[in-house]
Design goal:
The complex is a heterodimer of chains A (263) and B (396).
Chain A: H1 4-15, E1 19-25, H2 31-43, E2 48-52, H3 63-74, H4 79-89, E3 97-100, H5 103-109, H6 111-121, E4 125-127, H7 140-146, E5 149-151, E6 153-154, H8 162-168, E7 173-176, H9 192-195, E8 207-210, H10 216-223, E9 228-231, H11 233-242, H12 247-262
Parallel strand pairs in A: 1-2, 1-9, 2-3, 3-4, 4-5, 6-7, 7-8, 8-9
Chain B: E1 6-7, E2 10-14, H1 17-33, H2 37-50, E3 57-59, H3 61-67, E4 71-76, H4 86-99, E5 104-109, H5 113-125, E6 128-134, H6 135-140, H7 142-150, E7 154-158, H8 165-178, E8 183-185, H9 196-204, H10 206-219, E9 225-229, H11 234-240, E10 250-258, H12 269-272, E11 274-278, E12 280-285, H13 310-317, E13 321-327, H14 328-342, H15 348-360, E14 369-374, H16 382-388
Parallel strand pairs in B: 4-14, 5-6, 5-8, 6-7, 9-10, 9-14, 10-13
Antiparallel strand pairs in B: 1-2, 2-12, 3-4, 11-12
Helix pairs in contact in B: 2-4, 4-5, 4-9, 5-7, 9-11, 10-11, 14-15
The chains are: A alpha/beta (263), B alpha/beta (396).
């Protein structure tokens, strides 16, 4: 089954470019703004966009995304509205869109119904940070049936688990840059050559590094180890600051990262 | 049990990849030590010499006469060092942490009892201790906050979400993700990812084992029912576990109905919860149709958790244990009743178990026996009960 994520990485590889994956929390400050932000990010150079589904208790998130989730939930943002938003986005963009969300949101919605809806509105992949490799059976069957890519995470602590997880991941492999939760960091000290060494030989999906990347210089450094970088909290910080007026500032930020990656 | 770490469909290991290696390390260490004679000898010694075990099984004669039904026995976990059953689990986990070479301990706490127990054992064992506690809970349990400070622990207030127990757990998880190499997360109840629900239950099962032996000595028989309060469910799991195979012994959990299960303000997970995946486990949770975890409420800070340990969810699903919902008012009445009738001031958490037992006992025969697991003492609750009754206490 063809998938926009796979096609995107194939194209980038052919062009010798690195992927820029960017994140916003749906419904922060409102879904209208989220919709505009997604299009603006694509327009200014994002290759893939992750839409964060707000959750009441996001245990893998730092303060920035926690607060964004809370703002979104105060607006009563829910999964059905997010599906509708993606459906509208699909009228105007063919770029890969993913959902980043906690497993209970999928489970409670009904896993089969969730993936059927992803397929219907053309969501290309899902990232579920609290579903480790060992619990993959929660979604595997439905993800495969609907062609939605299930993206797994590798952490600096994964070591001998890296290969096993990489074999399971579809679309791309999410490399968590550092210990801890999401949020911008001044320094990323993980030895990626060592961590990703098991993937040097063999045919694995592309790998992107995320968690803590906040500027062009860091982004450039990260993509030297892999196929792309993921930026979340740095963008959500801008949305927190400018609210509905964040379209321009976020666009400018994405542009600066894109330039750094393509330089 | 089906798969490892599962109780039927419940349980599992739903946690971020970053902590997966640490959880596996813990699993391996626990598997290695749980049947190790030396480890168990050390633990039994700590139970006896430091925690004051075995805790007494007390025949509540006045209560028995007053209620006019089954004979009432009270398992005095409130007489343990630090005043609750929590010490049993903490001694076990921190002895394990020491064996694993961990130097820094983190814990979450609701009422503060698990935090106090953790701070206590860290002082004993020379370990660094940081306790996460919801800001709301810090306010209503300020005595326990001070107590933890006295014991040398750092108490970190959590303002995110509802600023109660579940948020303290979220924050402890986040800390663990950041400091995974040095830090041991001492979870206070039979919850979280495998191996915690099993390990914590194993460290608490001494409660039920003692009840069985003590009652055998006193009455030469098994009880007809064992009653315990349930938040996450560790004291109940500890009291129930040795009786699961004794099919004639009814196992009754008392959960917090707050202002009533038909109001939005309760923490009655079994009565009102749905299957979900949260805090590392598949179990029952109070949540909305989109899986957002509910804000819960109980007068008892130790019971206002939106979930329940997976083994309880399992015992409920197979009909082996029954769960009753007890309102604030019923619990406060039981709190006052036990104080006046037996001269025992129970923790407001444990008062939920007393209230549940008080509903059952008059309906039972005089030849029957009920054991109430009195999980903790009530000193910490005196202020909030006074406030509930509209009495202003001033200690200037």
């Amino acid at each position: 089954m063809k998938n926009r994520i796979d096609e995107c990485f194939e194209k980038l590889k052919a062009e010798g470019r690195k992927a820029l994956v960017t994140f916003v929390t749906a419904g922060d400050p409102d879904l209208d703004t989220t919709e505009k932000l997604v299009l603006e990010m694509f327009d200014k150079g994002s290759d893939l966009v992750e839409i964060g589904v707000p959750f009441s208790d996001p245990i893998a998130e730092g303060g920035t995304i926690q607060r964004a989730s809370l703002r979104a939930l105060k607006n009563k943002t829910n999964l059905d509205q997010i599906f509708s938003m993606v459906s509208r986005l699909r009228d105007v963009t063919e770029k890969p869109i993913l959902l980043m969300m906690y497993l209970n949101t999928v489970f409670r919605y009904g896993t089969e119904r969730f993936f059927e809806n992803c397929k219907r509105v053309q969501i290309d992949g899902v990232i579920i940070p609290d579903m480790p490799f060992e619990e993959r059976d929660e979604v595997k069957e439905y993800a495969e049936k609907t062609g939605v890519r299930s993206i797994y995470l590798v952490a600096p602590t994964s070591k001998e688990r890296v290969k096993m997880i990489a074999e399971e991941s579809k679309g791309f492999l999410y490399i968590v840059s550092s210990l801890g939760v999401t949020g911008t960091r001044n320094e990323i000290s993980t030895d990626f050559n060592d961590l990703l060494a098991p993937l040097k030989e063999g045919d694995y999906c592309p790998a992107c590094i995320g968690f803590g990347i906040s500027d062009g210089e860091q982004a450039r450094k990260m993509v030297s180890y892999c196929d792309g970088c993921i930026i979340g909290s740095a963008i959500v910080n801008i949305v927190e600051k400018y609210g509905k007026d964040s379209i321009g500032p976020v666009g400018g930020f994405i542009e600066s990262i894109r330039e750094a990656l393509d330089a | 049990m089906s798969k490892i770490g599962r109780f039927g469909d419940f349980g599992g290991q739903y946690i971020p990849e970053t902590v997966m290696t640490a959880v596996h390390e813990l699993e391996a260490a626990y598997d290695k030590y749980k049947d190790d004679p030396e480890f168990n000898r050390e633990l039994r010694e700590l139970y006896r010499d430091y925690a004051n075990r075995p805790s007494m099984l007390y025949y509540a004669e006045k209560m028995t006469k007053d209620l006019g039904g089954a004979k009432v026995y009270i398992k005095r976990e409130d007489l343990n060092h630090t005043g609750a059953h929590k010490i049993n689990n903490v001694l076990g986990q921190l002895l394990l942490a020491k064996k694993m070479g961990k130097k820094r301990i983190i814990a979450e706490t609701g009422a503060g009892q698990h935090g106090v127990a953790t701070a206590t054992v860290c002082a004993l064992m020379g370990l660094e201790c940081e306790v996460y506690m919801g800001a709301t809970d810090m306010e209503r349990q300020s005595l326990n906050v001070y107590r933890m400070n006295l014991l040398g622990a750092k108490v970190t207030g959590v303002n995110s979400g509802t600023a109660t127990l579940k948020d303290a757990i979220n924050e402890a998880f986040r800390d663990w993700c950041s400091n995974i190499d040095t830090t041991f997360y001492c979870i206070g109840s039979v919850m979280g990812p495998h191996p915690y629900p099993t390990m914590v239950r194993d460290f608490q099962k001494i409660i039920g084992e003692e009840i069985k032996a003590q009652l055998q000595e006193r009455e030469g028989r098994l009880p007809d029912a064992v009653v315990a309060c349930v938040g996450g469910g560790s004291n109940a799991m500890g009291a129930f576990y040795d009786f699961i195979g004794d099919k004639d012994v009814r196992l009754i959990g008392a959960e917090a109905a707050g202002r009533g299960v038909d109001t939005p303000e309760h923490a009655a997970t079994v009565a009102k919860g749905d299957l979900g995946i949260f805090h590392g486990m598949k179990s029952l949770f109070l949540q909305n149709e989109y899986g957002q975890i509910d804000e819960v409420y109980s007068i008892s800070a130790g019971l206002d958790y939106p979930g329940i340990g997976p083994e309880h969810a399992y015992l409920h699903s197979i009909g082996r244990a029954d769960y009753m919902s007890i309102t604030d008012e019923e619990a406060v009445q039981a709190f006052e009743y036990l104080s006046k009738t037996e001269g025992i001031i129970p923790a407001i958490e444990s008062a939920h178990a007393v209230a549940a037992a008080m509903k059952m006992i008059p309906e039972m025969g005089k030849d029957q026996i009920v054991v109430i697991n009195l999980s903790g003492r009530g000193d910490k609750d005196v202020y909030s009960i006074a406030r509930y009754r509209g009495v202003e206490l001033d200690e200037k």
